[in-house]
Amino acid sequence: MSSPTKRGRRPAPPPSSRLSDPSLPLHLALSYLLIKLYPLNSEREPIPIYRHTFISAILAIVMREYLEVSDTPVSFEALVDETDTLIKAEADWLKLHIKGLRTKGQPVEPIKEQRAVFESWLGGYKTAFSDVADGGIFLDLLEKDLGDRINVDDDEEILELPEPFERHSPIGIFVRKVLLTLRRLSFDETAALSRQCGEWCGVTLAGPSRWGALGGGNRKLAMEQPLDRRIKAFEGMREAEAAGDVTGGLAQLRKFYDYQFPSSGRAQHQHALLNLAHFHYSTGGLESARAALEEAIRVSRADGDKACLRHCMSLLHRLNTEASPLPSSQNTFRVQQTPISSSVLPKPTSPMDELWNLRAALDLGEPVHVAMRRIHLAMARYDQTSLKPEDKREPREGWTTEHDLDLAAWHAAQASLWGMMGSEHLCELHEDLALRSGGVSGDARLTVALARAERMTNKARYDDALRLLLDFDLLQGMNMTEYHRWTKVVWAVLDRRAVLNGDISSLELLDSLRPSPCTMRKLGPGGIVRDMAHPSPILDNGETEPSVNARLIQDEIRTSLSKVRKMQESKTPPHLSLPLVLSDIQLSSELGLWTLYRFGIVLMADILLSMEGGKLAQKAKNEVESIWDQVNLLTWTHYYLPT
């Protein structure tokens, strides 16, 4: 039996003429068939509905046209007739299958009932391109649906429900080519492709798009918009962001983005979208940040802006990590003396992402001594070629975005880790190195100042701590995120001084002035603390949403130790507080938080002494003597735990 005649392979079109390929509408229709063939549930897992014979028949049609086995490409009408016959037969079988399930008393999934009703798949494909704008929206959704059905990389672990298409299979290669084409389309190319698909389906497009009349305007007038007006709008956005005026900042951003970028000059578009995503991220609008970021990634890929794309992927990495679950109670937490798995905390691609992963790893319960390796990984990822003066590269034309390692932040992060492990000398050494680094950022300088102020507070040097916190150089240029971090330490210093002095009037004044702590929320591991204003919204049905507030594991230990201290002050029976402090000692030991570990030992000794009979006095003495050499007496006399 002779093999079928294969059409001559056409040369691949260059990137500048992606839309000149006449088979592109056909390939998009075949991709739509694959999406309908493999429905997904809300968790993006495939739902088995159809028989293998039906799936094989549809896949055979897709591969026949993709590999160009037939003499001529199939027309839209012929493809509709061929697929509708198969779909109708499968719908009839589904009706009989559902009837049999109900006869046996077995449940029937709603999606099976929907697919049992015959519907022309390609008929919906044709309807989507009846309008140019609707076709553009359809292409955007097509890209997202295809991306959900193909695995991103070669996973070492075998998934229970893998994606329908393996990326190295013939179907996977076909889907990846279609995805690459869709992701590189500009706005004008998307509109042109929508028209091209409509013409291939036989749709008559009369007049402009119904959406174009709403925002078309005078394109020439929009392009001639004065540059200083747009610069002023952007400066207004930065001022509103620093002042915490979210509404005003968004209004200024709308003025800045109210500009139609011509197809020949889109160099600023992706950077504007990236700034918008950063603004939403810093103010708590994670979904809005993700939407702007996805558009920035798409435009960056289409424009070939690798520098902006790297920053987009960095922010996307933070968003995905912050959306992951975090242990909410130490009672259900198990410490592993190994790094967090890459399936939980994805591997970064840049030095600053590695530093950000350090904070996320600590939130997820990675021991401090294990997390220290991330400091050296960040330095290893640093581009050493940037340190060689003889290897100077020409800057890219247009807008560029630097993505190097911030040495000040690197030293500040290392100082924070040494402080958690109780080494004050190494902590101060790296803080000094952070302040001496060239071009130290405001965030790194603030991190060092807050850490030093907290240590001064622990030693009862309240005036020195306030003098450091109220330094004008530290306050100048502070944004709202940094302001919230700064105010938290200021309130802690004032509260601690009033408590030790027994100043009841000052405590009452502080309680009336400072905001409620429940308004400050952390949405996920590695994320920043944001002022959410309304932390507990009330739903219409009277139920409240579950809390998504994420807490550091060390904060859980501090809170528990503070609870034990209050129980001791209120003369609570020792057998009730002893299990709590033992759990805190065990967890702080496994995490390498030796400062909290030593304080837990002191609390445990106090509890043992308060037990009846006094037979455990020698045990308490031995426990304290085991840590006495490492304890700074002045520090521990005034140790502060948040209440």
TrEMBL record:
Bias-annotated ranges (Polar residues): 326-344
Task: Report one GO cellular component.
Answer: anaphase-promoting complex
InterPro entries to which the protein is assigned, alphabetical: Apc5, Apc5_dom
- At the top level of its lineage, which domain of life is listed? Eukaryota
Q: Does the keyword Cell division apply?
A: yes
Q: Name one GO biological process term.
A: cell division
Work out whether the entry's keyword set contains Chloroplast.
Answer: no
Official protein name in the record: Anaphase-promoting complex subunit 5
Task: Provide the species name.
Answer: Naematelia encephala
